[in-house]
Design a protein that fits this description.
By secondary structure, this protein is an alpha+beta fold. It has six helices and eight strands. The protein has one domain (about 5-215): 3-Layer(aba) Sandwich (L-fuculose-1-phosphate Aldolase), CATH 3.40.225. The protein has helices spanning about 10-25, 80-90, 105-110, 140-150, 170-195, 205-210, and strands spanning about 35-40, 45-50, 65, 70-75, 95-100, 135, 155-160, 165-170. The relative contact order is 0.13.
Length: about 240
């Protein structure tokens, strides 16, 4: 199938962005080979990488469309983990993209059934005071999707026991950035554990961090009018 044969409502640029994000996972070192998968919300559902195809071989027409009832359209079948993507889009209206990886340090902790606690304030980047581990379930099953949603709770990322990690964001860039940040935290936590017992930040401090994260990393122009800044900035000269 070529891009010229795509249904007219499909966004070829978004399909290419899904491919580029999947390739970036490997280039950034948070995934290997054909493992992991990527999706992005679109009109009527979402676009997801197909099952078992090397990312370097993908063309826009290979990306699979799925609706929010779990039906697909395309020349290839969707990723075996389509249920996890579907559950996130069904349950999280703010989710615009999902990234699932088998990143080394996240997977290591997941195999130990070790969540990432608040050893560093940046754990709040995922939306909570720690990053949980979903209970183990066979890959590609509804049981895994259900366990993932429980572990996510109000957060935007979690580990998957004996499997890997998953993260979502408003768009592909934010989802990928969060996946990279969670893997970085997993690596830092691993090294801290090798040196000793990390000091865990308290709930009160993490509550303050979460409050500040409401506008963290966002310029005033990117916030809705009237949104109060949770951070203190210097006085503007002009």
């Amino acid at each position: 199938m070529t891009t010229a044969a795509l249904p007219p409502h499909d966004d070829v640029n978004l399909r290419q962005a899904v491919i580029d994000t999947a390739a970036a996972m490997n280039a950034l070192g948070i995934n290997q080979g054909k493992a992991g998968n990527v999706s992005a919300r679109c009109d009527g559902g979402f676009l997801v990488t197909p099952s078992g195809v090397p990312y370097a071989d993908l063309e826009p027409g290979d990306i699979v469309f799925m609706d929010l009832e779990g039906r697909y359209r395309g020349i290839m079948v969707p990723s075996s983990e389509w249920r996890m993507h579907l559950s996130i889009y069904q349950g999280r209206p703010a989710a615009g993209a999902v990234v699932h990886t088998h990143s080394t340090f996240c997977t290591t902790l997941a195999c130990l059934r070790e969540p990432i606690p608040a050893f560093h304030y940046m754990v709040a980047v995922a939306g909570g005071t720690r990053i949980e581990v979903a209970d183990y379930a066979t890959f590609g099953t509804q049981a895994l999707s259900d366990a993932m949603m429980t572990a996510l709770g109000p957060r935007r990322a979690c580990l998957l026991a004996n499997h890997g990690m998953i993260a979502f964001g408003a768009d592909l860039r934010r989802a990928l950035d969060l996946a990279v940040e969670v893997e970085t935290l997993a690596r830092q936590y691993w090294h801290a554990r090798m040196m000793g017992t990390p000091v865990i930040l308290g709930e009160e401090e993490m509550a303050e961090v979460l409050r500040r994260f409401a506008t963290y990393g966002r310029q005033p122009k990117d916030l809705p009018p009237g949104t109060p800044q949770a951070l203190e900035f210097p006085t503007k000269l002009d």
